[in-house]
Amino acid sequence: xKRFVLILMLLASPLAAVEPDEVLSDPxxxxxxxxxxxxxxxxxxxxxxxxxSNASLAKDLxxxxxxxxxxxxxxxxxxxxIVARYGEYVLLNPTRGGANWILWWAGPIMLxxxxxxxxxxxxxxxxxNAPQDAGLSDxxxxxxxDILSK
Length: 150
Fold this sequence. Notes:
By secondary structure, the chain is mainly α. The protein has helices spanning 2-12, 27-37, 56-70, 75-86, 100-127, 138-149. Helix 2 packs across helix 3 (56-70) and helix 3 packs across helix 4 (75-86).
């Protein structure tokens, strides 16, 4: 039973899709490539990093990243090269600069606006005059007495 659970745990853990022919001979460069590829999105799988994806485009991106690192690019230069080629969508964690600040702040701003609108609504409802109960007219009271007396 223990072996079965161990096998299930190994199968359930995410595996890197890096193939042996992609691995760099320099372990330092390979480690840098692995760390950088965890932050780059597979454009086919969308919510997987290129390190986890088996798509052919992800493999191409992994090879391109390793090629840039072998040529001597720094981490930021290699990522910037890929972003310049494929757009900022390739980043799993987009930058907070430029027009992206709208995306980062839209949620909190909308929450504050909705909270303010809710408070104004509640305050307006509490200040509104409660409808006055006019009571029954003489004719309605007589009809009620007739109904109840039957």
